[in-house]
Structure formats: C-alpha cells, structure tokens
Amino acid sequence: MNVRTGILLALLLCFGARANGGGFSKLPSSARAVTLGGSLISFTDDPNVLFYNPAAIGPMHSLSVSTSYTRLFPGVSDDRLFYISGSAVANLGFAGNLGIGVKAFSSNSWKENELVGTYAQQLFDFLSIGGSAKLLYWSAAAPSGLLAVPEEAISTVTFSFDVGALTQIRNIFPDNDLQVGIFFGDITRPTLAKNGSGDGTLDLRMSLGATYISRVYDYAVTAHYTVAGDTRRLGVGAEVSAMKSSILDQPVELMVRAGLGGLQPSAHQADLNGGLGIRVADFMLDYAYAYQTQLLYIEGTHHLTLRYTF
Asked: Alpha-carbon distance 104 to 96, whole Å?
C-alpha cells in the first residue's frame, strides 16, 4: 500500500470515527441511507434500519432482506477499498420482530466486521421499542515492506449494545404521517484496544431523527442529528416517487433521492449525496453516489443495494 492509499484509508477511518463515535468505522449500511443524509433512524420500511435504530423494525409485517456493496475511491489502483453489508428482518406476529445484520470493511492492511442481532416489539400502534447486541471484530496485518518495523498482526473482539424507540403519528394531516426515532448506540462503551486501554473506548452515540411522509404526493423528507463524544453531525435528505408504471403486469416505480450531511460546525467535513431507487414488483435496486467535500481530487464513492420483500 503506497502513501497515497494509506492517507486515504486513514482519512476514511478518521471521518467514520468522528462522525459516529469511537475508533470503530461506522460506514453507511445501504445506498438509501447514504442519499438520505447518512441515516434511516426514523424509517420503518427497510431492513437496514436495524443498523440505525433497532426499534424501527417493529412495525414491519413481512420478511425482508437486503444486501449492499460499496466501492470506495475507485481511482485507487494498488488497494481495493470496499465494504459489504447484509440484513434481514422477520415478523413473528405477537412475539415481535427479529433482525440480523452483518457489515464488513476490507483493505490490504485493515479489516473490520460487525454482526448485529436485533429484537423489537410494537407496544401500541404508535410506539415501538427495540435493542441490538453487536459483535465487533477488527484486525490489522503485520507491517510489510523494506522499511517496515517487524511487528505481529493484531486483532481484537468485543461486544456492544444499542437501544432505540420509534413513534408513528398517523394522519398528522390527512394522508400525511410523521415518524420520530431516538437511538442510543454502544451504551456499554466497550473498548476496542487490544490491551483493554480506555483510549480505544467507543463513545456513546445518541441520535434523534424525524421523517415526514406524504402518501398523497409520494415523497418523504427526513432529518437526523447525532451526538457522539464531542462530535455533532446533522444529516438531511428527501426521496420522491418520480414515476409509476408497469412492465409485464408487474408494478414499476422510480425513486429519486438527494441529501447531505456534515459535522458541526459546518466548516468541518461534509458530504453531498444523490441516487436512485428502482422497484420492480417486490425487488428494489438502490444506487447512491457520495462526494466528500474535504477529499479534494479524489473520486466519490459508489453504493449499490438490493432489497426484497416476501
């Protein structure tokens, strides 16, 4: 890995840590999340919500699965920087909903993996609560090269927990809904340091988000605010149904999305995002392009997600 790639990787992990709390990279889990400012905390129609608010899977009434792939900085030729994720949510009737999610980031010298198990219960028609247990793993390869200082490869495993709640206000105006989610992540504040040092402790993350949904005009507008340690991040986004039709008697829909997010104050790192979603029957293909404003002269990132609802 050359110096340029090393700098990119360090910046990426630094931004991910600052935006989400702690040293463990928290990259977006789906293309849709990217285009909506980086979070799905107050959405309830996507299995990837379990990464952002475990309570948000509570209102889901069917089996839903998703898988995502992100190619980071395609212009980097000597390292393949990418991450993948997958999620699934199943409805158990009166017993609540269960979800599972996985995320994996990979480069030549650094790897991070996350396994999430989620449970949520819809207590009333307007309120859901939920929690997630997470297994976190990271590893760093032994230094290589003529000038490398001989060291062993290192890795560590730890556990963490998230909790959340979500309320739905139906028909706040006729055929218009408001959804509000609150999330507390890494509430046990585990350490990712190999020696258990407090320097590797994950910050408690607190997020509040709201989504306004118009069932009349088929659009949604969302905003969320996250606090993690001394970091503050604001994200906003919107999606609109641009076209509805049918092909071979199957419904087809085109969604257009755009959003932005950034650390506060606004002089710090920010991102501009746009993308599309194409639904054919029960399949949804999402694409997002994200541009980091502080990574000058570097190509943006491409995100692809495939979702299916049974």
From this structure: 27
